[in-house]
Amino acid sequence: MKYGPPHSDASLGTPADPAAAASTSGYARQVTTTSKVVTVVITAVLFAAAKGITGYIPSPWGVGQLYIAAFVPLFFAIVSDTMSVAVGAAMGSFIGDMIFLLPVGATNPLLALAAGVPANFVATLLFGWAVKKYRSWPSFITSTVAFLTLGNLMAAGLVATAGPLLFAPLAALTSLQGKALLTLGLTVFWDTTSIPAVLIVVPVLLRAVRPISARSTVITDYPSWSSSEAKRTAPLSVLYALIFLVLAAVLFLVPWGGSIADITPIKTTIFAVAAILLVVGPLVGRLAGGRVPGRASAAS
Length: 300
What we know:
Layout: E1 8-9, E2 14-15, H1 18-25, H2 33-53, H3 71-79, H4 82-101, H5 109-133, H6 137-166, H7 176-209, H8 230-253, H9 264-280, H10 284-287, H11 295-299
Antiparallel strand pairs: 1-2
Helix pairs in contact: 2-4, 3-4, 3-5, 3-7, 4-5, 5-6, 6-7, 6-8, 7-9, 8-9
């Protein structure tokens, strides 16, 4: 990504076309206090609202939900101030849990504060830092898989360890094996719903906001990730798909018992995420309207 105004073409003695530069180089503007506050509020509100879409679909273990709303904070982490978005993600997680999950008995305020809030903050912060440091579509795929999995693992681990103390439906979960299996089950369940949502929806959102990005208060760091690196996304997608298939094998081969036995909802989604990684991963740049490698040279 290039910063600042478009440079002049010294060899031609003419200035670069601003519109062309904006469409190919991306930009980063100074982030004001007002912009940070607005970003926190918008992220929190939209994340909470998105959680409501699947708030009525709890996990197989009666805690948490089907998790597709992750695309909201991760989209804003790409185009806006990272810390502001991370704070908004933490707030939106708690607000959404209180509005949508608390009424159906899938959480309570203490568990939401102990698990969802810190996990969403950490995952969003690290994701935003990574995609801004390594600006490319391969880094977007890698960061999505790595930091969503980290956040989901963190939330699942906190649910399994703090849940028996804070959430009555998990009070009977006392064995170390049971906690480990719950952590694995929730992590896989959340991964199989959040990662496909991010890989599909975020590139489409990036394409949709492009016309208004230059005058938006919230979009202060619109990316321009060259599709010339598209070939690298294919092997990465295959690698991550294989990792999920290994997780699926572990999930199905381990002797699950007690309240952890019902893994039927995962049996389809665990393979679906691998298939989506294989199909969507190499196409994320095109979903966002990125340039197709070699088109300009072919036309010439």
